[in-house]
Amino acid sequence: MFRIKEKQSLLEARTNALKRAEQEIMGMRKENLALYKENKDLMNDNEEQKELIGRIINLVSGNKYNNEKVILNKIKELISDSESQN
Hints:
mainly alpha, rod-shaped
């Protein structure tokens, strides 16, 4: 009789441990999904910034008339456009 109760107790402990582990897994899955979405957003932001930097580099390297004021104004315009899109 004692042996049966001992086995039942062990089985209940194992069942409870499995339930806790399943709950932890579900929490980790939710966290993983949230991190995946955040990473995706950050990658999009990085891509937009790379495009903006590329446009600025093209603008600066194409300065045939050495007019820094025009370039500065154009850079400000590009940044303003980029910020308004976000």
